[in-house]
Amino acid sequence: MVDVGDKAVTHRRAVATACVRTTREVIEAIASRGLPKGDVLAAARVAGILAAKNTAQLIPLCHPIQTTSAALDFEPDAPRGELRVRASIEAVDRTGVEMEAMVAATIASLTVYDMIKSADRWASVEAVRLEEKSGGKSGTQTRPEPANAVAPSERSQGGSAGGPLVALHDGPLSIDDAIASVSHRAAGAVCAFLGVVRDHNEGRPVSKLEYEAYPAMAVAEMRRIASDIAAEIAGVRLAVVHRTGTLGVGEIAVVCAASAPHRAEAYRGCRALIDRVKATVPIWKREHGPDGASWVGWQDARCEVHEHEPR
Fold first, then answer.
1. Which of 42, 67, 86, 148 has an alpha carbon within 20 to 30 A of 295's alpha carbon?
2. For residue 1, is pLDDT > 60?
3. pLDDT, tens digit (0-9, with 9 covering 90-100), for 293-309
4. In the predicted model, is pLDDT for residue 254 greater than 60?
5. Could you give the angle at which helices 40-53 and 98-116 cross, rounded to 10 degrees?
6. Which of 150, 283, 276 minimizes the C-alpha distance to 225?
7. Cα dihedral: 279, 283, 288, 293 (round 10)
8. Of the residues 114, 120, 170, 275, which is catalytic?
9. Cα–Cα distance between 99 and 201 in angstroms, integer?
10. CATH numbers and ranges of domains, the chain
11. Does the annotation count 114 as an active-site position?
12. Residue predicted with more confidence, 154 or 74
């Protein structure tokens, strides 16, 4: 164990989150207390608190901590079949409570699984992570967002742990991540669309493309689009990730994925997603070829040219 005897005793706080991914029907049954084992959230809350108080007995090199507060909160999202778990732990001690918060979130989530497994044996616990901590020499720290991206655990179909994967990336895109983010036991169909850089446009050779965006506006608009489509098409889950920066011919510029119980809804959701992203998201493309570079799609912002006879 690390010797913490010389550290100052200060107020410590940490917040961790996790996501239980299951089906819409199970989330609704949790809310109505309709599962055989009873009140799922009450059991999970007690389990999380007990876990926080006993972390040193579970993690070999953790110090015993004098916890002063332990709170577990739950955010059910029936349309996405997700239950987001948030553990907030406080103490006055010589070392932090990050592990206590993460253990609390994990054990609470596993307790949820135990309570629902008769209804969904293939439910999963995902995205356990530290969100913030305060106290001690390092002070207050919050999980940084990836550049130009929505964090995976805001994975968003919107917001916190588990939701649509909606992001901008300046490196290669992962098809597998997009598909994994929309896949679940109730999905009978998963569709993906890849937008790839081609070597020509309107009869002109293309050697590479540059994509630029207003990151906050672009991500917010993609999230709005995903949310609107999810409200329009029952049971659909969506993901969209777009590249920024310079791309060569053959590189993937955008990945869209959609899942649904049936193929018609998955096809429809994926098509609507890419069509609306191309129509309204503030991302711009600069095309490079033998004759130089030009912005594509900015014609509507250009002034009309009028021929005038010399005076």
1. 148
2. yes
3. 888 864 333 334 344 44
4. yes
5. 150
6. 276
7. 100
8. 114
9. 54
10. 10-142 (3.30.70.640), 152-296 (3.90.1170.40)
11. yes
12. 74
Give me the count of residues in the chain. 311
Asked if 274 and 192 touch (Cβ cutoff 8 Å), the reply is no
Residue type, 203: G
Spatial contact of 227 and 216, defined as CB atoms under 8 Å apart? no
Residue 139's Cβ-count burial label (10 Å; 0-12, 13-18, 19+) is: exposed
CA distance 209 to 296: 10
CA distances from 101 to 86, 126, 200 (A): 9, 15, 53
- pLDDT digits 0-9 by tens, 188-216: 999 999 999 999 998 899 999 999 988 88
pLDDT above 80 for 3: no
Structure tokens at 16: 């961790």
